[in-house]
Amino acid sequence: SKLTNLAHLEMTWRSSVHFHPLLVRILHKSRLRYYGKPEKKMDMPYQAYFEVADGSGMMSMVLWNSLCPEWYHSMKVGTVLLLAKYAVKASYPFKTHPTPGDSQMKRFAKIEISLNVRDPPTEINIIPEEMVKPEWGLPEVKYRFITRSELDDLPHNHSCDVIGLVTFVGRAERARKREHSEDFWLYRWAHAIDGTSDQPFILELFATSQPDVFESIRPMTYLVCTQMRVIQDLTENSSRTVYLTTSNESQIFITGLHNGQPYTKDAKVKSFIQWMKSQSEADQIKKTVIGGYYPFPRPPDSFLKY
């Protein structure tokens, strides 16, 4: 059938009611959002954002309501979609935006693709990777992997991807989303090393839409975290604490989930694997720790300062 592209969609969306099908690749995926309220009777109040791209640029795509439980887990970073009978709307101004791996890619920020179960009922097809043709011109997924030796020089809020061997994982902890709120964020601390520094990556990992992965982080697993944000925590006595925290678009992968992921082709990932092959597993196991309370960032050393 006749296809359109994202650039043409942005130029013609106000004057069109029916849009030609789109062929796009998913580059980023947000956590699943539940927006239900007691007074509103909705069957499936869920929403998820994706950033999708074709040869012309990148645009947000929103998956709504009952399509979320049906499609969310099938739509992975790197998945190619054929979309028909979708809606196009002015984009929501307050949503978060991931940092694209390809800084040259054009972003169409004024509109977003809306996938609904009705008005109109969207047709979604996943194209298997082996059937994707080079002439379609779909961009590859690109990453921004950093090593531990590079981390200290990065600015606050910088977005990056990391890979490392888990040496410590703390217990799950809770923090209130807002003061006096009944809603909590669930998170845990982890350390991961990559051989480029004596210091580990300190990772604040919030439970995203991957509860099974969040529960399964263990010492000695290869951990990949994408779309992490750098936190440069400067204390009063100018001692600096640098750690990484998850963002709305973070994805976490552990040993057993890496096969077939787009990041396996990345040079820094390959370099880490080579380093791991030179390590003694028995020596690394001796350095691992699990569980316990992990006060971080560290409190001051005296009560007066506190």
Automatic annotation (TrEMBL):
One of its GO terms (molecular function) is single-stranded DNA binding. Pfam families: RADX. It comes from the Eukaryota. InterPro entries: NA-bd_OB-fold, RADX. PANTHER family: RPA-RELATED PROTEIN RADX. This is RADX protein. It comes from Anthoscopus minutus. The gene is Radx_1.
